[in-house]
Write a structure and sequence with these properties.
The structure is a homodimer of 223-residue chains.
Chain A lengths: L18 H19 L4 E2 L1 H8 L3 H9 L11 E2 H12 L5 E6 L3 H8 L2 H4 L2 E8 L8 E2 L2 E5 L3 H7 L4 E4 L3 H13 L4 E4 L12 E4 L2 H13 L6
The first copy, chain A, binds a DNA duplex (22 and 22 nucleotides) through helix 3.
Chain lengths: 223, 223
DNA sequence: GCTTGTGAACGTTTTCACAGCG
DNA sequence: CGCTGTGAAAACGTTCACAAGC
């Protein structure tokens, strides 16, 4: 990395890592977990790269942002590297999450089994529909939107998933942020405007298909 | 762009556009549709940039990959630019889509209302569970996995959404590709290995939360 | 032997800054 | 005047290639 004219080398934090690197870290973690589950103890950057479609050099560079995790001549120990990456991503701890919006998508997310393994759990759900409030889905109680503040602060929640209609998303986002949430995963097809200290990840299902559509339309003619 | 030493200028296709550019195109489209719906007829690159968190120059450069769509002194006409971007993304046509896996997530996707507006519709669903086969969800019939070939070819389907458990995803992917699908939107938390002519977009819900977790953990201490 | 970690080279993407136009 | 479109410059990310280590 570029050299630190900065007087305090300690400020060269891991947070400076390019977004693309952090994103790939999640891919490495997922594959390493699969590898470990299938009995693989160590793996080289080139083997891992082949499985994921990255170059070996890129994997090594990415990991080198955060430390020296490999063994020359051997590769990386899966269990060790998993622990390191989890620690970098912050998923070595438990993250309680609040879900806002218990529609079709919200219900599916409540029942989704993949969060727990990575350290996340939806511990509370909110909705504006009086018919839903008070019900339980997968043992998770559904609260009214007005209880946001109480739910978030009593359970130490820092992350929210927003799965409400597009028209309500910005209002809901404002509310969860006011309640203390600092990270938002937004499934509504709108760009949220949030204060700078709040992190934002958007997933727009139609947009993902659009990217496929473009790729298909612009592919080598006959291939 | 760099100049074409290439003898055949027609080969300078739009397909060469960086992925990041194409991805932003989807953001532009979404915002323009919202703007038009709220009565805005024209918008400048800097106004659009402010709403989306991009710079004005970036928006102009991105659009310039594909043509001259703006009016100096005025900006861009929303309706016109929407049509242009749709044409570039290929969403000016109708895309029938097959869904594989009618679990929690699959059912939510079947009921999701946001696809139609962008040109996509799930026209058939497949599952391996005999109890589900033959049922209708949102007027969509659920077929057995063995009917992939028939469903895909009879309906001219080129895109598939995979929402099956991680262990089944690669097998299902192989099957839909064999049936003629050339674009896969994969919700299973695994990296699929697909032939080069098949395009692949993955959405891993836990991974999205991991990216948030990293951002939160590595934020300016007190902010 | 094989594999990591890394400076240096390379290529790509973003930003700058301004000429040209309505 | 405001805004686009675009070369040129700057920033950034990736790949190369090899010294060092097991």
């Amino acid at each position: 990395m570029s050299l630190p004219k900065d007087k305090t080398p300690e400020t060269i934090t891991v947070g400076d890592a390019p977004k693309a690197v952090v994103n790939r870290l999640s891919f490495y973690l997922r594959e390493l977990q699969n590898l470990l589950a299938s009995g693989t103890a160590t793996i080289s950057s080139s083997q891992l790269g082949k499985r994921l479609g990255f170059t070996d050099a890129q994997i090594r560079k990415d990991l080198a942002y955060f430390g020296h995790f490999g063994y020359p001549g051997v590769g990386y120990r899966c269990d060790e590297l998993i622990a390191k990456i989890k620690s970098i991503l912050g998923t070595d701890r438990f993250w309680p999450v609040v879900l806002v919006g218990v529609g079709n998508l919200g219900r599916a997310l409540l029942r989704y089994k993949g969060f727990d393994k990575q350290g996340f759990r939806i511990v509370a759900a909110l909705d504006s529909d009086p018919d839903k409030i008070g019900r339980l889905i997968e043992d998770i109680p559904i609260h009214g939107l007005n209880e946001i503040q109480a739910v978030v602060s009593s359970r130490g929640i820092r992350l929210a998933i927003i799965a409400v209609p597009a028209n309500d998303a910005q209002t809901v986002a404002n509310d969860v942020v006011a309640a203390g949430v600092v990270g938002v995963l937004n499934f509504a097809p709108v760009t949220l405007i949030l204060p700078p200290h709040v992190h934002n990840v958007g997933v727009d299902l139609a947009m993902e298909l659009e990217q496929l559509s473009f790729a298909v339309v612009n592919s080598p003619p006959k291939s």
